[in-house]
Amino acid sequence: MMRTKMSPKILLLLLLSAFPQQTDGFGSNMANHRGRLRPVQQHRSTVWDRTLSTTKMLLVSEEDVLEAVEQAEMLWAQALEARKTANALSDRAEEEAEAAAGTAKEAENIFQNQTTPVSMEQLVQVDKAAKSNLDATSMVNRAVKASEEADRLEQLAEEALRKSEEQLEQHLKDFPDSPLAQED
């Protein structure tokens, strides 16, 4: 079993939790006369309460801190990849939207010049403009969803980072001589 050096406050808490306070079951202390416990009389019966009260102390180990930091780093890496994907989709959506705007302008010009009948070739061009517009809209929607996912992952990563900092702070309180302590 590994021994660790504990602060005096922690040792005091451990000692106090080892000697529970004697009660009569109703919260009042038992009378103490020269080191002997006397039972508290209740109506016609004597009540002895020998239940032990325990206090759980959860110390934050170095391993806990390192695990929390690794979790935060993993989430930040995922958030970064999601943000890169969202940015790439956004750039692609912008390009497709510009191309769709150009084909839509050409299609609009076809119908503005109504001196001649509309040919099959012109209808195909209008259809191409409509499909290009739908593709651009679809790409914008994908970019928005990817951006929302990146935002969600960044929020999770930020929370994980905050928790790892809290765990490090608690670890340094629990183990002041820890190798994780920074020397200024």
The total strand number stands at 4
N-to-C SSE series?
Answer: HEEEEHH
- The span between the termini is 32 Å
Strand fraction band?
A: 5-15%
The residue fraction in helices comes out at 55-70%
Tell me the radius of gyration: 36 Å
Overall outline: rod-shaped
Low-pLDDT parts are 22-45
**Quick one: biggest sheet?**
2 strands, antiparallel
Based on helices, strands and strand pairing, what is the structural class?
mainly alpha
Q: How do the strands of the widest beta sheet line up side by side? A: 1-2
The number of distinct helices, counting runs of at least 4 residues, comes to 3
Average pLDDT for all residues:
78
Signal peptide: 1-25
Region (Disordered): 164-184
Keywords: Signal
Biased composition (Basic and acidic residues): 164-176
What can you tell me about this protein's structure?
There is one protein chain. Helix content is 64%, strand content 7%. It is mainly alpha-helical and 184 residues long. It has a domain at 62-174. The strands form 2 sheets. It has a two-stranded antiparallel ribbon. A two-stranded antiparallel sheet has the order 3-4. Helix 2 packs antiparallel against helix 3 (120-174). The protein has helices spanning 8-18, 62-112, 120-174, and strands spanning 31-33, 36-38, 40-42, 45-47. It is built from 3 helices and 4 strands, in the order αββββαα. The longest helix has 55 residues, at 120-174. Mean pLDDT is 78; it is low at 22-45.
